[in-house]
Amino acid sequence: MRDTEEMSIREMAERLKRKDAEEIRVREMAGRLNRKDAEEMRIREMAESFFKEDLQADAGPEEDRRNREAVKKAQREKNLQKMKKLLLLHGQDILFAPGMQQEKSFIQHGKVSVFEHSVGVTLVSLMLAEKFKMKVDTRSLVRGSLLHDYFLYDWHDPHPEVGLHGFTHAKIAMENACRDFDLNEIEKDMIARHMFPLNLKPPKYAESRILCLADKIAATCETIRIPYCAEVIRELLEAV
């Protein structure tokens, strides 16, 4: 009886040992699984970090480029609005004058009216003066630029009395402008000599040289249909 009881105790002890050993194995397996899960997680994190950095590296220059373009666009729009204010400050009476309004019915280049061309040239003149930090008489620059093509006829139609438009219209524009407005010497020079070198006398003043360049820039853009200062020109058209 005693031997049987001792055997039962030994069997129970063995079972407890096996149970403990099994629990240890289970804990070890759980530990290995946890380590495996942790390792997999670290691998995933490393992979995600790698691809994230890679994507950021790829997107970085493009994002920088877009940001630079946005800044340039905002600055350009700000400058154009500044030029518009200067144009209205010094040239509002010209814009509303009957002769200037008449220019809306004459085509200059492509589908651009003489009025639109004159406004565009004035904006470009102001921008060139600011870009190159030239000391100019801003009022004269605005008024001379607005009136540089104040010839008041459709040059696409035959005008035998006028002669070759490219060679003669600057003189006609100056005469018309002197008739309708009080011009100073800078403004007269700007209008009379803006067609240099077709007209042989070179521009005398800085304002005249700026206009000469601005007129050619605007004419080229209009002829090959490159929009320039379009939004501000449209705003001014609607306003006047």
Summarize the structure.
This protein has 240 residues and is an all-alpha fold. It has 8 helices and 2 strands, in the order ααββαααααα.
Low-confidence stretches are: none
CATH topology of the domain at 77-239: Hypothetical protein af1432
| Shape, principal axes of CA atoms | rod-shaped
Helix percent reads: over 70%
Number of strands: 2
For the termini, the CA-CA separation is 124 Å
Largest sheet: 2 strands, antiparallel
Architecture of the domain at 77-239 in CATH?
Orthogonal Bundle
Indicate the radius of gyration in whole angstroms: 40 Å
Separate helix tally: 8
What are the key terms here?
2 strands, 240 residues, 2% strand, 75% helix, Hypothetical protein af1432
Describe the structure in your own words.
The structure is a single chain. By secondary structure, the protein is mainly α. The protein has a domain at 77-239: Hypothetical protein af1432 (Orthogonal Bundle), CATH 1.10.3210. Helices cover 75% and strands 2% of the residues. The chain has eight helices and two strands. The protein has a two-stranded antiparallel ribbon. The chain starts with a helix and ends with a helix.
